[in-house]
Specification:
The complex is a heterodimer of chains A (about 240) and B (about 230). Chain A is of the alpha/beta class. Chain A has 9 helices and 5 strands; from the N terminus they run βαβααβααβααβαα. Chain A has one domain: P-loop containing nucleotide triphosphate hydrolases (Rossmann fold). Helices cover about 50% and strands about 10% of the residues of chain A. Chain A has a 5-stranded parallel beta sheet with strand order 2-3-1-4-5, with helices on both faces. In chain A, helix 1 crosses helix 8, helix 2 packs antiparallel against helix 3 and helix 4 packs across helix 7. The termini of chain A are far apart. Chain B is of the alpha/beta class. Chain B has a single domain, classed as 3-Layer(aba) Sandwich (Rossmann fold). Helix content of chain B is about 50%, strand content about 10%. Chain B contains 8 helices and 5 strands. In chain B, strands 2-3-1-4-5 form a 5-stranded parallel beta sheet, with helices on both faces. In chain B, helix 1 packs across helix 8 and helix 4 crosses helix 7. Chain B is globular. The N and C termini of chain B lie close together (about 10 Å). Classes of the chains: A alpha/beta (about 240), B alpha/beta (about 230). Chains A and B meet through helix 2, helix 3 and helix 5 of A and helix 2, helix 3 and helix 5 of B.
């Protein structure tokens, strides 16, 4: 942090940051993966910022969840800690190096989720003031019923906190999940104007959504560093070749 | 009623009117004798029939252990570390301090948000941001700031544990060796604490005397806080 702490909207980096948001089942991860393939094929240096922060922070989060020790405040703070680690290690350095950084979920997930849990909207926004403002933040807008069908068909079990079971919305985990996600959608809708999220209609075909995303991204990429495409080299045969 | 309040936005689901105990904070730099005096105060208050909870930093059930490990490895960045401490503090506030105050305990805490803020500021965090983040903290009934001049502090640390990596701010690369770094780091912390005296209403305690002298001073002042509002 030498040189002072930069706040949201004040960072200046040569790289670009694109993030996707939306409820589970909105198809945002698929869209991000397709965007990544395209950017790589175009020769950009792409860095995918996964949620693999420090094992120490992860341990606390996992343990807190497993033992149901988390209150809305500590849930919010431990996720902010995790996000800070990602920012300091996996977002700022590649952006400084001029990479195109992609992230699946960002601060807006926390704003939606924590506020639904009863945390003050102003406080949680202040908490994340250190975050880098994305070049473009996509919001994959999905009606609740569509998302629910995709999720309940395709996965084994919904987890306690994911379903918002700590909120006592319903004793039935599926019903709780539905109610919780509905409230999350309300929060996302409010954030479209507040943060200038780019809403994509996620009921369209995958191809149509991706075309829209690529158009917006390519406009935002003017002047970004590209590399020459490197081909894989078989080092073993190369070595053998040099010996004979 | 003690009339508790929050610094800022506060904690969700806490009814302040239910908090009946007293929250007393001991602050000050490393090596100033906080832990000794907390122990003495606890004994003294219990002898007088008060139920006492003593608590300190990095002791939360949620994050305490991992936070200690994080310090040993020192791989976490400044903002991450600040928030890790805030998580630990929130867990103790919600699960120890608030329930104890509800039950009418006197809570003695070894350091509070002021130390956390001073250490984070020295590591580059924005003071205004920290104030917002710690807006969920309860305002204490009294804050006693044990203060020693830097020369006395050096002598005292040499007589006890010696210089340690974190207390010397070695992660900040401030000096050639631990001594130089310790002096610069602790001076900086002292300056940050001194800035908070007025803002947060610290009660200054001159910590240069003998343990007995300092404790006598502290005990009289704590007595007044406990007696306030007709006990």
């Amino acid at each position: 942090m030498a040189g002072g702490m930069k706040m949201y909207g004040k960072h200046r980096f040569p790289g670009r940051l694109f993030i996707v948001e939306g409820i589970d089942g909105s198809g945002k991860s698929t869209q991000l993966m397709l965007l990544k393939k395209w950017l790589e094929s175009e020769g950009y240096v792409v860095y995918f910022s996964e949620w693999n922060s420090s094992p120490l922070v992860q341990d606390v989060t996992k343990r807190g969840k497993k033992k149901k020790m988390l209150t809305p405040m500590t849930f919010s703070l431990i996720h902010a800690t995790d996000f800070a680690d990602r920012t300091e290690h996996h977002i700022i350095p590649p952006l400084k190096a001029g990479a195109v950084v992609l992230a699946d979920r960002y601060v807006y997930t926390a704003f939606a989720r924590d506020v639904v849990r009863g945390v003050s909207p102003k406080w949680v926004r202040d908490l994340y003031a250190f975050a880098v403002k994305p070049t473009v933040a996509f919001y994959f807008r999905t009606p609740l019923d569509v998302a629910m069908k995709r999720i309940l068909g395709g996965r084994d079990a919904i987890k306690y906190y994911e379903a918002g079971m700590d909120l006592d919305l319903s004793d039935d985990i599926e019903e709780s999940f539905r109610l919780f996600q509905g409230k999350i959608i309300d929060e996302y809708e409010k954030m479209i104007d507040e943060f200038g999220l780019v809403a994509i209609d996620a009921t369209q075909s995958i191809e149509a959504q991706q075309a829209e995303v690529r158009k917006i991204v390519s406009d935002a990429l003017a002047g970004t560093k590209k590399t020459k495409v490197r081909r894989w080299v078989d080092l073993a045969s190369l070595a053998r070749g040099s010996l004979t | 009623m003690g009339g508790f309040g929050f610094f800022g936005e506060g904690l969700p689901d806490v009814n302040l009117a239910e908090l009946k105990g007293k929250l007393i904070v001991l602050e000050g730099t490393d090596g100033v004798g906080r832990t000794t005096h907390i122990g003495l105060l606890k004994q003294w208050l219990e002898n007088h029939g008060h139920a006492v909870l003593d608590t300190g930093m990095t002791r939360s059930a949620l994050a305490g252990k991992r936070l200690k490990q994080a310090k040993e490895g020192h791989t976490l960045g400044g903002i991450t570390m600040s928030l890790f401490y805030a998580t630990d503090f929130a867990d103790r506030l919600e699960n120890e301090i608030v329930p104890a105050l509800r039950a009418g305990f006197i809570v003695l805490t070894d350091r509070y948000i002021y130390s956390l803020m001073a250490r984070a500021i020295v590591r580059g965090a924005d003071p205004e941001w920290l104030r917002e983040v710690y807006g969920f903290a309860l305002k204490p009934d009294a804050i006693f700031y044990l203060r020693l001049k830097i020369d006395d502090l050096v002598t005292r640390v040499l007589q006890s544990t010696g210089f340690d990596y974190w207390e010397s701010g070695m992660d900040l690369h401030m000096g050639e060796d631990m001594y130089e770094s310790f002096v610069r780091y602790q001076k900086w912390l002292l300056a940050e604490f001194d800035k908070m005296v007025e803002t947060y209403g610290f009660n200054m305690i001159d910590a240069s005397g003998s343990i007995e002298e300092v404790f006598a001073d502290l005990r009289d002042r704590v007595d007044q806080v406990v007696a306030r509002d007709g006990d």
